[in-house]
Amino acid sequence: MSALLNRLAYLQTRRDRTPNLDLARDLAAREDKAGIREIAENMWNENKNIHSDCVHVMYEVGVVDPALILPYAQDFIKLLKSKHVDMIWGSITALSQIAKIDPDFVFKHLDEIKKAREANAVITTDTSISLFTTIASANEDHSKVVFPYLLKQLVICRPSEVPQFAELILPAVNESNKADFIKTLKKRNDSLSGASFTRLAKIIRIAEKID
């Protein structure tokens, strides 16, 4: 194994993922494109522990600087078909960062992302909601396609998830869609109580002021 790969959590026999985070921050800080390329290539390593760690490193690099993982955007799309849930979750997390600088690319692959999300809803939900919000916020054309999907998630999610999802979606709310957003939230608020009701009511008040 190379010195770089030996810094992965698995190869250090660590159960926590701190080594991956440290490696990602180091690669990003130095803008080490050769090192990032090596990590990216090993997202396809036959050892599932190594490829899982590499995906983790890649999306953590993306959190620091999405541009550094943008060249591997197509790899993350391919990994959505992985049999390993952690690979799918990691790929969606990486794509949520890439969406911040290249929403058009991610928009082109929405159907694939939706399919992966719906097959692994428990794990990928929050991250994918953030991803769709970023896309919907990019421009009006994207919003017309994506925002109805976000509203659907507010309709079908568990009551306990409504305030959290609403907060995640709020950046994509604008003058043209705020009425539908508010209407959807008010319907869901009827099933809430206590802190959740108060939290959602606050989001509604914020949305009402958007112009």
At the third CATH level, what is the topology name of the largest domain? Serine Threonine Protein Phosphatase 5, Tetratricopeptide repeat
> What is the total domain count?
2
DSSP strand content: under 5%
User: What is the level 1 CATH name of the largest domain?
Assistant: Mainly Alpha
Number of helices: 12
Proportion of helical residues: 55-70%
Q: Average pLDDT across residues?
A: 95
Structural class per helix/strand content? mainly alpha
- The CATH architecture term of the largest domain is Alpha Horseshoe
Number of strands: 0
What does this structure look like?
The chain has 211 residues and is mostly helical. It has helices at 18-30, 33-41, 48-64, 73-79, 85-98, 103-108, 110-119, 121-138, 140-156, 162-169, 178-189, 194-208. The chain is elongated and about 55 Å long.
